[in-house]
Amino acid sequence: MARTRRGAVAALAAAVALAALTGCGTDGRTARGPGPGGGAAGPAAVEPTAGQSRLLERAEQVLIGRCMANRGFRYAVTEPPPAQRSFPYGLDDVEWARAHGYGGRDDRAAEAARLADPNQRYFHGLSARGRAAARTALMGASPVGLTATAPTGTTLTASPDGCIARAERSLYGDLAAWFRVKVVTMNIRPAQEAKVRADPRYAEAVGAWAACMRAAGRPYGSPDDSRAAAAAFARELPPDRADAAESALAVAEATCATGTALSRVSHALDLSYGDEFRARHRGDVDLRRRLQNAALPEAERVVPPSDRPDDAAGGTAPTRASEKAGTTGTTGTTGTPGKPDGTTPSTDSPGGPHA
Q1: pLDDT tens sequence across 206-236
Q2: How far, in Å, CA of 90 to CA of 86, rounded?
Q3: CA–CA distance, 56 with 293 (Å, rounded to integer)
Q4: Which residues contact 190 (CB under 8 A, 6 or more apart)?
């Protein structure tokens, strides 16, 4: 139940954000096994540091840019936006709520940055035929050829022929394996959060929270309901008044979350189900890390030293995937201009509602 940004996918940056993994989705009910490396004995692979992960992301963008240039299109390498906090089970940080509300101001700033993205502007400047051709160059003619089933049960497909696929193949070698482990690991958290929300203990805690909210004059049955009310403020009030009303409601939500069992129960359930999902997908998590580590020498060849993150060589404590990409609590996307990761970002490490 974190903030989700569902802007129209009408420009290149948005297309990129959705490109690799949202080509086609169906509701599958049988999750695929771990595949290569799944369940294998031996020490777990070391997770890349935050700097190494950024190096891989930068290399992927550079390779995409080269490929797009060869196909007659421009593609700028851009910096990812800063990650935003997410509260999937109800906002439970009173000070954060007082400062940010539900993040409406942050979302407006992020949308402005998205519209200013050079890839966005370039894509808007193309004709309808040019946009279609650029999309084909980037993503392939149709989302057929790569298939993986996420822990949520959804099957995702993508093309192995566009510049995204070409870049990932250059870095990771086995494109099918990379696509599969990326789909799985990036969707562990959405599956984990769905289990928490379906747990009767969470429902009971939400009931106690709702009683607290009613006593405060906020008759909402769930944090989803209060979030919807805050969204209505943005539609119906001028920005300043909407921000003030949103912040007041967010503070009430957080106060009731921490004053009842909701915060405590949701954190405990999140950790428990997180352990369960990470154990279930340990092979895929490990294979993703191995592929990333093996790709680092190629990334160093692709990215000039002057363009590398300061900590790309290591030395920084590993950062959870959710912290590297940002998280959403439902099925929204995290816009990373120029980066082709499009499924709901997730984490393969322990993380509570704020991960």
Answers
A1: 999 999 999 999 999 999 999 999 999 988 9
A2: 9
A3: 9
A4: 150, 151, 152, 330, 331, 344, 346
One DSSP character per residue, 246-268 reads HHHHHHHHHHHHHHSSHHHHHHH
Comparing CA positions, the residue from 123, 193, 188, 178 lying closest to residue 154 is 188
With the C-alpha atoms ordered 67, 69, 75, 76, is the resulting torsion angle positive or negative?
A: positive
SS3 readout for 280-343: HCHHHHHHHHHHHHHHHHHHHHHCCHHHCCCCCCCCCCECCHHHHHCCCCCCCECCCCCCCCCC
Please state, in angstroms and rounded to a whole number, the distance separating the CA atoms of residues 274 and 188. 8
Strands 24-27 and 154-158: what pairing?
antiparallel
DSSP annotation of 38: T
Contact, 156 vs 25, CB < 8 A? yes
Please tell me what DSSP assigns to residue 151: T
Alpha helices (H) along the chain: 12-19, 50-70, 94-100, 104-116, 118-125, 128-139, 163-172, 175-186, 188-198, 200-215, 223-236, 239-259, 262-280, 282-302, 321-325
pLDDT digits (tens, 9 = 90+) for 140-172: 999 999 999 999 999 999 999 999 999 999 999
